[in-house]
Amino acid sequence: MAHDGDCFLVPGPVRMNQACLEAMATPVMTARGSEFRDVMAGLNSGLRVAFNLSPSEGVRGTESWTGEDGYKVIVVSGSGTAAMEMIMANRFRPGDRVLVPTNGKFGERVAHMADRFCTLKHIQYEWGRSFDLYEIEEELAKGCYEGLAICHNETSTAITQDAAALAEMCERHNVAFILDGITSVGGLPVHPEAWKAEAVVMGAQKCTAGPSGIAAIAVSERFVERTKAIRVQGDSNPVYYLDMIPAFKKGDDDQTPWTPAINLAMGWSAALDALREEGVEARWARCAKMADGVRRLFTDAGFQLLADAGQRSDTVTAILYPEGIDDAWRTRLKEHYGTQVIGGQDDLKGKMFRVGSMGETPIEEMVEGCRRMFACFAEMGVDLPDLNVEEYFA
Ligand SMILES: Cc1ncc(COP(=O)(O)O)c(C=O)c1O
What we know:
This protein has helices spanning 18-24, 34-50, 80-91, 105-117, 133-140, 163-172, 221-233, 244-251, 262-278, 280-300, 328-337, 363-379, and strands at 7-8, 72-77, 97-102, 119-124, 147-151, 153-154, 159-160, 176-180, 199-203, 214-219, 316-320, 339-340, 342-343, 352-356. With 394 residues, the chain is of the alpha/beta class.
């Protein structure tokens, strides 16, 4: 079935489905009553699907936030950045050394947080280049690190880090493995248990197509133990709203310490129902199929991709503009072709565009969006080969 209407192909916030929008329009309920505890239980259970954790029932009073694997999910009122800050501030003490390798804007944000709450060692790779795993191994082998924190899927440069290799190193060197999974959880294979990750963060508005302004964290038993121990020792970072100890106390009762983002939670729970229905692995496969099509199509048409081959993301693709084209193309694409993609950030502004392949975007929308991108480039004087766009997504 062909797609008509606009094409919204950005790496989040993505479009929300009707059930999610309607759920957010539900008349508000009390924050502490049984109705909201039902919502939280459903949300917790859906989050465990997205995080690829062992299932929970989604029924009030059954400890829906946890499961057989021991991981707990915690809902955060705030965007992904708030959730990431919560982890860095609570899990580490100011003197703890944390290694943060980066190759884009959001990794650098993790480094800035580490600098604020712990003792940072930042290994800065060029944007879009893969990490040098030998250098990271050598650094960890020094034996002075408490943690390794990464942005798993670097949305600014469309590169996915080799989390399995980094996880293996963290285990060998007894270092806490922390992931910003804001554009990976729900869209790419994420394996918190196999990676023995201590904490993984997700944002609702990305791969799970939920509302902006709400996020979640999955934490291991070790994370909970260490965070509590640090508090008892009395040299933890100062936090109040983002303190995880009250959240740990409320979790068993399907509650949050402060007034929850009630209507956002209702919307997100409905969006996660759609993920459950599709199946998390099927969603990974759909995202991968769309990204693979975009990569092959634009490469065959002569465009260059920013990220190193072999680690290109399946939820976002970064494509360099050809000679003579800048963001005026994106404006034209939006205004004349009803199609939105996103631009480059910081030094890459005006030099490239990024195509999101996450959330519930149907393949037909991606096909139609790519046709329109080609038409817009052609209109602006770029000479492109005559390619059958649909074939790339078959
Ligand atoms: C990988 C990654 N990390 C962090 C963020 C920041 O998340 P938020 O804007 O939800 O705070 C983003 C947003 O695009 C992101 O893509």
